[in-house]
Amino acid sequence: MNGNTCFSALKERILKDGKCLEGGILKVDGFINHQIDPDLLEQMSVEFIKRFAAVEYNKILTIEASGIAPAIMLGFLLHLPVVFAKKKKPSTMDNMLTTTVFSFTKNRSYDVCCSKDFLKPGDKVLFIDDFLANGNAAKGIIDLVQKAGAEIAGMGFLIEKSFQHGGDYLREQGIKVESLAIIDSLDNCAIKFRD
Amino acid sequence: MNGNTCFSALKERILKDGKCLEGGILKVDGFINHQIDPDLLEQMSVEFIKRFAAVEYNKILTIEASGIAPAIMLGFLLHLPVVFAKKKKPSTMDNMLTTTVFSFTKNRSYDVCCSKDFLKPGDKVLFIDDFLANGNAAKGIIDLVQKAGAEIAGMGFLIEKSFQHGGDYLREQGIKVESLAIIDSLDNCAIKFRD
Questions:
Q1: Which distant-in-sequence residues (6+ apart) come within 8 Å of B19 by Cβ?
Q2: Which ranges of chain A would DSSP assign to H, the alpha helix?
Q3: Residues of B annotated as binding site?
Q4: Closest CB to A76 among B42, B84, B118
Q5: Those residues with Cβ within 8 angstroms of residue A59's Cβ, 6 or more apart along the chain or in another chain
Q6: A133 Cα distance to chain centroid
Q7: What is the dihedral of CA B52, B53, B54, B57, to 10 degrees?
Q8: For residue A154, what pLDDT is reported?
Q9: Contact flag A34-B69 (C-beta cutoff 8 Å)
């Protein structure tokens, strides 16, 4: 098992229930990011536990909203705290770390923030999210973690679109990246997995 | 156990780690809505299971983002699908139900939407959210569920601010509402629980 191997339960589910739309879009809202299948979520979290078994981390970090479910399940199985970075600055949040992320999908920038109370010097965080595409959200997280004086222990994604190259960038930085399903192409609305 | 009894594990945690700010604001971002303690989350979900033991439901419904964690944990323990209504219309969502919610906290309206694929006639949904205050989000959910031809089986909240009266409204509609901690007052930055 490594970052280049698809997790079969997820791959099968994508083939069964995923929908490929024009423009390289993969819809998985029946089981990942609108309706969630908690049993599949547990299986995927167990797979993350295996893939990051040799890594030391004390906290799970994600970004709202679609990352929360996989992060929570993993934190629950490991009895680790889960922190979700927020896409808007809450009026009640002080003591804050902020970074700016550009979304290609939405063609606009947004701020991502996290309280220093929950991301601290010495923390070794495992970042979890649903999708890895161009990697801009992940780059924002790296910036937040650096600003906090904490450390990225690894990054785990349910689905990586390798043709958008965010994974290349992250792996070049020496980050351990594990994606449970790697999709090399969605051309002509056909889902082509890495293996 | 009923809607008027505080769940002691949550009450104790609020007293230990919650922060009361000016203007009736209770900050619980150390364990509920920014950093999450998955073990407390499990205990709270088990408490929901007990309180809704006599109720029949086939789906957990919540709104992004802070409702996702408690909804996922409950869905996981019960092996039920979890649907989270979205606060913005995703560009890839069709076949959609929409309602408008006015947020007093943010002093603006926002749309909440859900695909008809995941909220269907005959569904009996248990709605879960972190906070119940004036109840506007809950009213929006009732509207969505009615538009879907589905049914509200019950509504569960981690924390209810009874002095903002959303709970009164929902209970008057005959809805079974269970809140794990009911706060009657935050006057003078003192947390006063129902019991």
A1: B26, B27
A2: 8-17, 38-51, 68-78, 136-148, 166-172
A3: 26, 33, 133-137, 161
A4: B42
A5: A80, A81, A82, A83, A119, A123, A124, A125, A126
A6: 10
A7: 70
A8: 98
A9: no
Separation CA B134–CA B187 (nearest Å): 17
CA distance A87 to A89: 7
pLDDT in tens, A147-186: 999 999 999 999 999 999 999 999 999 999 999 999 999 9
Report CA Rg, chain B. Answer: 16
pLDDT tens readout for residues B32-44: 999 999 999 999 9
B contacts of A103 (beta carbons < 8 Å): none
Token output for A37: 């299948």
Mean pLDDT of the region B98-115 = 90
Sheet holding B124-132, edge to edge: A35-36, B82-85, B59-63, B124-132, B151-161, B177-185, B192-193
Residue A140 dihedral angles phi and psi, to the nearest 5°:
-60, -40
Average pLDDT (B91-117) is 88
Residues across chain B: 195
Amino acid A93: pLDDT: 67
B94 contact A CB<8A = no
Q: Is the peptide bond before B65 cis (omega within 30 degrees of 0)?
A: yes
Return the percentage of chain A with pLDDT > 90, whole number.
85
Answer yes or no: are the C-beta atoms of A59 and A126 closer than 8 Å: yes
Mean pLDDT of B120-129: 98
pTM of the model: 0.95
Distances (CA, A) of B91 to A5, A113, B94, B135, B194: 30, 24, 8, 28, 43
- Give the chain B residue whose CA is nearest to the CA of A75: B38
User: Can you give the pLDDT at residue B195?
Assistant: 75
ipTM of this predicted structure: 0.94
